[in-house]
Amino acid sequence: MVSGSHGGSPVTASSCPxxxxxxxxxxxxxxxxxxxDLVESSPDALLVVAEDGSIRMVNTAAxxxxxxxxxxxxxxxxxxxxxxxxxxxxxxxxxxxxxxxHTDADGDEADTAPVEAxxxxxxxxxxxxxxxxxxxxxxDGAGNGTASMIAAVxxxxxxxENDDSLRExxxxxxxxxxxxxxxxxVVSSEGEIAGVNNQFLTMWGxxxxxxxxxxxxxxxxxxxxxxxxxxxxxxxxxxxxADPAAESHDILEFRDGRTFERYSRPQKVADQVVGRVWSFxxxxxxxxxxxxxxxxxxxxxxxxxxxxxxxxxxxLTGLSNRQLFNDRLASALADPRGTAVDVLxxxxxxxxxxxxxxxxHAGDQMLIEVGRRLRACVRPDDVVARLGGDEFVVLLIESxxxxxxxxxxxxxxxxxxxxxxxxxRPSLSLGIASIGEAAVDASELLRRADVAMYAAKAAGKNxxxxxxxxxxxxxxxxxxxxAGLRLAVDSGQIAVHYQPIVSAGSGTVTKVEALAxxxxxxxxxxxKQFIPAAERSGLIVEIGTEVLLRGCTELKxxxxxxxxxxxxxxxxxxQLQHGxxxxxxxxxxxxxxxxxxxxxxxxxxxxxxxxxxxxIQQLMSLRTVGVRVALDDFGTGxxxxxxxxxxxxxxxxxxxxxxxxxxxxxxxxPILNAMIGMAHGLGLTVTAEGVETSAQAGYLMKLDCDALQxxxxxxxxxxxxxxxxxxxxxxxxxxxxxxxxPGNR
Length: 745
Ligand code: C2E
Ligand code: MG
Ligand code: MG
Known about the structure:
Blueprint: H1 26-31, H2 35-40, E1 45-50, E2 55-58, H3 60-66, H4 70-73, H5 89-103, H6 109-112, E3 115-120, E4 126-139, E5 145-155, H7 164-179, E6 183-188, E7 193-196, H8 198-204, H9 208-212, H10 216-225, H11 230-242, E8 248-253, E9 259-269, E10 272-282, H12 284-311, H13 322-334, E11 341-348, H14 351-358, H15 360-376, E12 383-388, E13 391-397, H16 402-412, E14 417-419, E15 422-424, E16 428-434, H17 442-458, E17 463-466, H18 469-490, E18 494-503, E19 509-520, E20 523-525, H19 527-537, H20 540-561, E21 566-570, H21 573-577, H22 581-592, E22 599-604, H23 613-624, E23 628-634, H24 641-644, E24 651-654, H25 656-659, H26 670-681, E25 685-688, H27 694-702, E26 707-708, E27 717-718, H28 722-737
Parallel strand pairs: 16-17, 19-21, 21-22, 22-23, 23-24, 24-25, 25-26
Antiparallel strand pairs: 1-2, 1-5, 3-4, 4-5, 6-7, 6-10, 8-9, 9-10, 11-13, 11-16, 12-13, 14-15, 18-19, 18-26, 18-27, 19-20
């Protein structure tokens, strides 16, 4: 069945057109005699176009009109005969005709009416034409048919209304539409697709055939399938159709990751909205780039936040660092409301020993644990910072109970810490400073906390102290003492005095203890003051060596007179841990020509506290060459008789605090009895220190104490005054023993 755009009679055909010759088929001319001639003599160019757009046959007028030979045209795509911008026109017409044929409807005049187009001749010249079409179905007799279109082309160049400028505008518009990167879709007010450009089809991947079917629903389905939010798309379309004059702009996200920008504006003809133009722009690349930039910015922001956090964190403990503490303190002090600010500065006691004895790993573990405990003692917002080493600081802002926090912190370390299987009992000294009536700046506040912390250390460690102005003087004095001591050591101002030690058994002076003396500005600085300062600063190593060297040098003649005589020298734990102490001692005795068997080293029990193998080895190796070791000040501190066994010690020196308990000599003091008895039981000799009265001496001698030392016999004397001191001491012990002393009456 043929349905024609000119309303012509239906034409039937029973077989395919003759493709090879391109001439009007016999069937057509044969069925109705004279039709072939009619076709050939038609003034209009007639073309049979197959469904795929190829030309099946043409008449003579077509050859003439387009300037091609019939053989050239047959088999070619019909679009070669259409000017740019009009090449899809015939396709659309073809589709509309077919649709009408199928539905048997009359069709919409507008759809199947002849189309205005521009044809192109073989020489490239263009001409205005009108194309009318009709469907031509060839069947196989079984009801299956192939549709072709007969197109009648009429040159309308002669028409007066021919408007070149209109044509030019059309061509320009068409060229513009096809060259833009945007996909453009025009939909009529009735919702039918009125036009698209190729870019639209490419962007959406819509097959041309699908569009040609005019099945807008199928096209819509195809479109929606690709979107992430199809409902939103439909909603927008509906909203715009409800408001034909509206414009819109939005973004479409595709399932495959692409992103389109969608613009929509009404299509108007003389102020009347006749449809809607949709334009789509693929902004995937821009969006990807934008997303990348956004992500990179977010990454950068995160990284910088992380770096910032790290810059204010202490790497080991995770606490705040000095920088953050300083910042917080500065801003708290700058608060115009005069907020209460307390700084709690604390330092672990004897932390160096943990590092030295157990290694740095254990030291680190200890610091981490202390950090954890500190945090548990304060409010979540309080700053706890590690300033470095074993020094921590807590900043309390508007705290009502800084003292209570300090107590909690000191107490928190009472629970032992287990590190690598070793139980440690850390302790700390803490100083508090707060802003009072007098405004102080951050560094002054910190300095005051530091001064208080040192006062806590000086007062015996493991405690907290609040800053008091007097502490500043103590600090100045202490610094001054250390500086003066350094000078004294460098300029050889450290002298040595000697105190005789008498033997209760032989009634003679058998030993002399060397004691360091520092005369500063004509006054004697007590060793109890400068020895701790020397230990803190490490100067004790030089002082100790000096005392040993001088003692050996000055006492050599006295020692040489009797091999049973000996020289006792005090040795600090610092010296024992410093380098090869045994080697140093032997080098000194050798250089002075003193027999090591005439040397006694006095150490306090604290040097054995840490089970320091190095210290024990040093003493043991010295004992193998005859050097003896005395345990000084026994009974003070953490002394324990039980620990004596196994220590590399020869003599026990009972501290003068026990001796001073003897007042009349008639009292019962079982402790002295036990000490002397136990020491003898362990094979040690016993010396009593600080013997000032005959009663004390008599009491001790009755207990079988081996040697006595004290002002009763002689105080410490310089070498120049030693001879008379030795004589005095000898006379005193002889008198006690009831011996006849030469020269005494
Ligand atoms: P120490 O080793 O126990 O020395 C004995 C101290 O008791 C000396 O005090 C001595 O003067 C004092 N003393 C002696 N007899 C009596 C007495 O009858 N009554 C009283 N009240 N005191 C008496 P000094 O010289 O003041 O020394 C104090 C401490 O300083 C020494 O105690 C020792 O631990 C330390 N020291 C002194 N010289 C040195 C040294 O060269 N190296 C080291 N590491 N420490 C030293
Ligand atoms: Mg001593
Ligand atoms: Mg002593």
